[in-house]
Every structure is written in structure tokens, then in C-alpha cells.
Amino acid sequence: MKSVIIIPSRWKSSRFEGKSLALIDGVPMIQRVYERAIKSKEADDVIIATDDKRIFNFCKKNKLKVIITSKNAKNGAERISFATRKIDSKIFVNVQGDCPLTNPKSIDKVIFCLKNNISKGYHVSAGCATDNNLKQDKRNSLGFVVISKSDDIIYTSRSIIPFYKRNHKKVKMFRTVGLFAYTKEIIKKFPLLKSDLEKYEDLEILRFLENNIKVKCAHVKEEISDVNYKSDIKRVENLLRKTKK
């Protein structure tokens, strides 16, 4: 079953314009994401999808596979939906272009999770990590997740869920890690789906959940390495140096 990783990459990020080419310890972020993604053993190919000529030209110059997609894409999932018109694959994998330390093993787990559950009626899988020390993110850049006993994602929010009390020390909290796998059938339909919850929370996965499309959780171990602001670069560089030791 063919699986292709698509790395959505845009220039006009509202919080950090041009971050795709921002240097992470001397290497442009999109290049770091690509180099991690090509280490996946479950994926058959890795392609960057962008609507920006600066990113496209950088990728071409550095021999990173890249395609141009519509400027009408509102988010990464929509950009991947447009990419399905140019790429033939049964499964499309969304690896966020602003997560430069993504573990290839996590990518493989998300792909494997979807492959194992397609016959059970699933069209989407998502990587989720647990961290009992998570605190409310004042900048609302984290996505928190509630998961059922059967590892279905019930809801995701920018607010901490489930509600946390100090005396509930054993409560498990999960967060999304920017890794998703979709069947071609469902990601092609994504731009046509409507969701008020997605508008409120700014989390793409809610467009599936609100339309009764089940999402299976793949449990992974991932550091918080997404770059949403310029100030995040130093934190990610410190994490990168730790992993090299």
C-alpha cells in the first residue's frame, strides 16, 4: 500500500513569516524536516508542497522533491488535498513543515496505525504523545487531546483537556505532535467538509471529528519541537544539541 509523505510549507505564516527557511543551527528548517522524513521506513516518497516560489526555488536548488500547490489552501491538510491531484498514492502523510525534530519512527507508527485500521473503517490516524507535566500554553500553540479506551480521538483543543485539578495527580494528558496519515479518499474531500469547531480551536483534525470521521490515535514519543515564533528557535536548537550528545 503506497504511502507518500507530504510536507506542507508556506511563507506567510501569521506568527512567523518565512519560518520555512529560518535557520535551525545553520540549516533551513524545511531541509531539516525533509531529512528526517526521508528516514521513514514505511513511506515510499517524500515531497514538499508549497505555494511560494522562494521555498520552491530553495528546494529545487538543494535537490529536495517539491511541488507547487494552490494559494487557496487554508492549512496543511488542504494543501495536501490539492497535492493528491498531482501524486498517486493510497495513503498521504502530513509531516508538519515547522517540526524540525520529528522522529522518523513516529512517522512510521502513524502510517502503520492507519494501514492496520483501514479495514475497520478508519481513514485518518494521528500521532499523540503523553506528558503529565504539560501546563497551559499561554500562546495556545499546543493541541491537547482526549482519547477513548479504544484509542479513538474524541476531541482536541487549544485548552488543556481533560480539566486538570491539582489533587488529580494521575490524570494522563495527551497532545498532538503534527503527524497525520489519511487515505486518499478522505483527504481529497477535506476542503469540502465544514466545521465550526475547527474555526474555534484552529485545529484541522476537528473537521474530521465534527463530520463523524473517526480518527485513530498512534501513541508516539516526541519532544515539543514545533517552531511557531522566532523565540522557539533557540529552544529547538538546544533540543537538537542534546540529541547529538
What does this structure look like?
By secondary structure, the protein is an alpha/beta fold. 29% of the residues lie in helices and 23% in strands. The chain contains eight helices and eleven strands. Strands 1, 4, 5, 6, 7, 8, 9, 10 and 11 form a nine-stranded mixed β-sheet that branches.
Topology overview:
Elements: E1 3-9, E2 23-24, E3 27-28, H1 29-37, E4 45-50, H2 53-61, E5 66-68, H3 76-83, E6 91-95, H4 104-117, E7 124-130, E8 144-147, E9 153-157, E10 174-183, H5 184-189, H6 196-201, H7 205-210, E11 215-219, H8 232-244
Parallel strand pairs: 1-4, 1-6, 4-5, 7-11
Antiparallel strand pairs: 2-3, 6-10, 7-10, 8-9, 8-10
Strand-and-helix sequence, N→C? Answer: EEEHEHEHEHEEEEHHHEH
Low-confidence stretches: none
Structural class: alpha/beta
Determine the oligomeric state from the structure: single chain
Global Rg: 17 Å
Q: Biggest sheet, open or closed, and with what strands and sense?
A: 9 strands, mixed
